[in-house]
Amino acid sequence: MPTFKIFFLGTASAIPTNDRGLSCTAIQYENELEIFDCGEGAQRAALEMGLPLSKECSIFITHMHGDHVVGLLGLLQTMSMHRRERPLRVFGPKLVIPFIALNQKMLNFGLTYEVIAKAVRRGTVYDSKTSGFRVLAERSEHSTLSYSYIFEQKERPGRFNTKEALRLGVPEGPLWSKLQKGAPVKSPITGRMVRPGQVLGPPRAGVRVGISGDTRPSSKLEAFFKGCEVIIFDSTYSDAHETNARENMHTTAREAATLAKNAGAKQLILTHFSSRYRTVGVLVKQAREVFPNTIAAQDRMIYDVAASFPSKP
C-alpha cells in the first residue's frame, strides 16, 4: 500500500490562535511532498511533523494574501539550512515569481538549491512521472486572483493475481514486475507467452483530493471537485456570519457541505477557521446537517488517505 497522507500544518484564517497556525496543508505520496499554501510558521510545523524537506517537493500557492504565502520565505531558508540539493518547484499566481525573487534579493539570502517558480494556469499544473500523480488547478472566487487544486492519483494496474501467475508458469521475481508494468513475458517453465491481462484485474481509478483555498462556493468548483473522494474546503464562518462570508469572499461550513454533497465526495474536511470561534463544534454541526461525513481539521492532524480508501490505493 503506497504512502498517501494529508498533513495539516495550519488551519486558521487570517489571524492565528494559540491552537491554530496560518494556512498550510501537505500531501505526502510515496517519496514526494506537495505543499499547498504556506502561511507564517509553516516551516516550524513541517519540522514538528517530521516532513521530509530534502525530498522531491512542490509548493502550490492558492493566492497572494499574506496568511497563505508569507511563510514561504522561512520555509525556503529552512530547506536550505537542511542542505537541500534537489530543485524546488513553486506554483502560484504570477506574482509569486517576483515575490520570491525580490524578497530573496532584499533579504540577501542564498539557497543551496534551485527554485523553479511558475505561474499557474487552469488544467494540469504538475505531472509527476515517477510517483504516479498529477496536480490540477481551477480558478476560484476570492477577492484576488486565486486557484483551487486537485491532487489526483493516476490510474493504476489492477491487482496482481499471484496464484494465476504461478499456475501459468511465471515464478515470483522480475517477471512479475514486468507483468505488473504491462509487459508480456515468456514463462521459463512452459515456454508460453503470458499477457498482463491474464494475471491483472481491471485497472483501478486513483483517489482524488480537492483543496479549495479561500473562495466562495460556485458551480464551477463543484464541477471541478466532482469525483473527489476527499475535499478540504474553506469554512471560515458559521451560518450566523453568512453575510461576512459573502462580503469577504469566503465560505460557511454549511455551504462547504452542500458543495461536497453535490460533488459526490466521500469525506469533507473543514479548515481555514475564523479566530472568532473558540471551538469549531458549531461549524461541524452545521456542516453535518447537510453532509454527515464531515470532520474539522486540527493543526498537526494527519489524515491517512490510503487507510481510508484501502480498495483504491
Fold and architecture overview:
The chain is α/β, with parallel strands linked by helices and 313 residues long. The chain folds into two domains: 258 residues, Metallo-beta-lactamase, Chain A (4-Layer Sandwich), CATH 3.60.15.10; 38 residues, no CATH class. Helices cover 27% and strands 25% of the residues. The protein is built from twelve helices and 16 strands. The strands form three sheets. Strands 6-5-4-3-2-1-16 form a seven-stranded mixed beta sheet. A seven-stranded mixed beta sheet has the order 7-8-9-12-13-14-15. A two-stranded antiparallel sheet has the order 10-11. A hairpin with a 7-residue loop joins strand 8 and strand 9. The model has no long low-confidence stretch (mean pLDDT 95).
Secondary structure topology:
Layout: E1 4-10, E2 24-29, E3 32-36, H1 42-48, E4 56-60, H2 66-69, H3 71-81, E5 88-92, H4 96-107, E6 115-119, E7 123-128, E8 133-139, E9 147-153, H5 162-167, H6 174-180, E10 185-186, E11 193-194, H7 196-199, E12 208-211, H8 219-224, E13 230-234, H9 242-247, H10 253-263, E14 267-271, H11 281-288, E15 294-296, E16 301-304, H12 305-308
Parallel strand pairs: 3-4, 4-5, 5-6, 12-13, 13-14, 14-15
Antiparallel strand pairs: 1-2, 1-16, 2-3, 7-8, 8-9, 9-12, 10-11
Helix pairs in contact: 10-11
